[in-house]
């Protein structure tokens, strides 16, 4: 093999290195890639213009040769530590300065090339080996890491043999050939490194997204054995169960509300997989009902046959509750408008009818119908009472807001509540905390308290306890009414606040609707927690 052929091979390999790193720099715009580009550009300049037998070199080319060797070695180390996310140690700069000074002194002192090139060879070889070790320690496992790191180390070892073998004319072509092959290996290896690095980063980003998103991400495999290939950790927040709990569709089916299980079965039936969002109710581990929205997409193989379903599940409980609140307020607004329009008009004829019934009932010819007249008057009074409550739902009802202490209102109503409770042998426990004064309409708040306490007393059997409590939480004052009844049935809870909805034999169904309307006028929130052990109603008033 001729020397020219070997040098040409080395130049082509170095050109490939320049193109490789330039492409990576254009794609990723990293500063360490720019340094690596400059390394191989300087190497190319040295090969094309300065790599000749040392005996043919003049003092200026030798000076440049050594300078370029130190410069591209420093750039290589700076780029490599940047790739590893570190900074260049000042020790390398000091070492480069000392070694290059020794080489320059040797050149100007007329030393033999085998002597003045020793500091440069030591520095360049060390730089290559150090680069190999840094890449080995900082890259993701894979062929690219192994190939690139090994090639750099071997290139460093090969640099150390230069002072001993450069004088052997027969070895020069082989030296350049080995150098070129190692550069080819580095060019291929660094491409593989970036493929592996990109793949690893994408996997890390995906894992980061999957672990931190509040949405559940999953993949369900249709092939035998069918089951879940992956469920993200967010499922624990949604259901209370860890991802390991869900292996097959059977485990998921156990926590789905019975009325929604048919929707879930469509996931396992490929032909019926829904395209849009599917809303399901999930029974969490703690017993809470969680509303979830699910979106699926099919994964198919090369023949178009579905092999899996991928999708996300999102907790929409807050949105559902908000929609229910909006729906409840819409119903209250409609009823309020109706009340404002004709409630007064209905009351006027009732007053006339009641007056005539009282007048006729006093006449002797109707004395035999006294009981019937009394019944008619009672029904009219009941109708008038319903209308009075109906008017409380009016959207435009005028309220008189003034500073009042909620505890004082409760203390004033306590004897009345106590009297109502005594008849059913219910104990009333008043627990009042230190609370600020609120801007409220005391008459409406009295009606709110009486409605809530009456419902609580009627929900309990003899011997139960009614607790009325006030406290401050953050920027809110909370009125808490707790009973020991059997809880509110789910079908009633879903429609709570709807006018004329009642479970009482003689109830009007307006009590809770009025409570919601009063809370709305006071910018307060009504929060209800119910279960077999009783019901707790929190009325949350803003402090300002």
TrEMBL record:
Residues 202-266 form the PAS domain. It is an enzyme of class 2 (transferase). It catalyses: ATP + protein L-histidine = ADP + protein N-phospho-L-histidine. GO terms for molecular function: transferase activity. Pfam families: HATPase_c, HisKA, PAS_3. InterPro entries: HATPase_C_sf, HATPase_dom, His_kinase_dom, HisK_dim/P_dom, HisK_dim/P_sf, PAC, PAS, PAS-assoc_C. CDD domains: HATPase, HisKA, PAS. Residues 341-544 form the Histidine kinase domain. The keyword Membrane applies. Residues 276-328 form the PAC domain. Gene3D superfamilies: 1.10.287.130, Histidine kinase-like ATPase, C-terminal domain (3.30.565.10), PAS domain (3.30.450.20). The keyword Repeat does not apply. Its EC number is 2.7.13.3. Keywords: ATP-binding, Kinase, Membrane, Nucleotide-binding, Phosphoprotein, Transferase, Transmembrane, Transmembrane helix, Two-component regulatory system. The chain crosses the membrane at residues 6-26, 62-85, 92-111, 117-136, 148-170, 176-195. PANTHER family: C4-DICARBOXYLATE TRANSPORT SENSOR PROTEIN DCTB (PTHR43065:SF46), SENSOR HISTIDINE KINASE (PTHR43065). NCBIfam families: sensory_box. This is histidine kinase. It comes from Sporomusa silvacetica DSM 10669. The gene is sasA_21.
């Amino acid at each position: 093999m001729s020397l020219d052929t070997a040098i040409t091979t080395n130049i082509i390999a170095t050109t490939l290195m320049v193109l490789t790193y330039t492409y990576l720099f254009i794609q990723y715009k990293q500063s360490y890639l720019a340094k690596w580009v400059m390394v191989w550009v300087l190497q190319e300049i040295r090969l094309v213009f300065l790599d000749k037998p040392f005996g043919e070199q003049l003092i200026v080319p030798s000076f440049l040769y050594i300078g370029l060797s130190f410069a591209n070695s420093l750039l290589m180390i700076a780029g490599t530590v940047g790739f590893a996310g570190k900074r260049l140690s000042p020790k390398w700069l000091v070492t480069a300065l000392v070694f290059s000074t020794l080489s320059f002194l040797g050149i100007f002192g007329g030393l033999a090339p085998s002597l003045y090139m020793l500091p440069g060879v030591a520095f360049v070889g060390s730089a290559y080996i150090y680069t190999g070790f840094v890449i080995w320690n900082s890259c993701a496992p894979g062929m690219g890491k192994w190939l690139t790191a090994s090639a750099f180390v071997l290139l460093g070892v090969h640099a150390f043999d230069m002072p001993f073998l450069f004088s052997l004319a027969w070895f020069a072509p082989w030296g350049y050939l080995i150098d070129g092959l190692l550069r080819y290996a580095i060019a291929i290896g660094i491409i593989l490194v970036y493929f592996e690095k990109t793949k690893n980063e994408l996997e890390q980003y995906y894992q980061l997204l999957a672990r931190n998103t509040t949405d559940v991400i999953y993949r369900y495999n249709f092939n035998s054995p069918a089951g879940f290939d992956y469920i993200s950790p967010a499922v624990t927040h949604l259901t209370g169960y860890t991802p390991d709990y869900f292996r097959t569709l059977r485990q998921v089916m156990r926590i789905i509300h019975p009325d929604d299980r048919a929707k879930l079965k469509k996931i396992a039936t490929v032909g019926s997989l829904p395209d849009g969002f599917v809303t399901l109710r999930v029974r969490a581990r703690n017993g809470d009902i969680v509303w979830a929205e699910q979106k699926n997409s099919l994964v198919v193989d090369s023949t178009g046959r579905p092999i899996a379903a991928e999708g996300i599940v999102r907790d929409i409980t807050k949105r559902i509750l908000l929609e229910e609140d909006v729906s409840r307020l819409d119903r209250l607004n409609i009823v309020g408008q109706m009340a404002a329009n004709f409630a007064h008009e209905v009351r006027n004829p009732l007053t006339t009818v009641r007056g005539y019934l009282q007048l006729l009932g006093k006449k002797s010819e109707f004395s035999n119908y006294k009981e019937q007249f009394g019944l008619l008057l009672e029904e009219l009074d009941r109708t008038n009472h319903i209308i009075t409550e109906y008017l409380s739902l009016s959207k435009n009802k005028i309220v008189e807001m003034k500073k009042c202490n909620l505890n004082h209102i409760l203390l004033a109503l306590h004897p009345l509540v106590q009297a109502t409770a005594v008849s059913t042998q219910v104990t009333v426990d008043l627990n009042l905390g230190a609370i600020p004064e609120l801007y409220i309409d005391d008459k409406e708040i009295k009606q709110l308290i009486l409605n809530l306490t009456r419902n609580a007393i009627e929900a309990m059997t003899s011997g139960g306890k009614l607790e009325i409590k006030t406290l401050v939480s953050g920027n809110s004052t909370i009125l808490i009414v707790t009973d020991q009844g059997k809880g509110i049935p789910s079908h009633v809870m879903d429609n709570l606040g709807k006018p004329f909805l009642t479970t009482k034999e003689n109830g009007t169904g307006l009590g809770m609707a009025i409570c919601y309307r009063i809370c709305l006028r006071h910018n307060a929130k009504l929060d209800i927690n119910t279960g077999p052990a009783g019901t707790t109603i929190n009325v949350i008033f803003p402090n300002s």
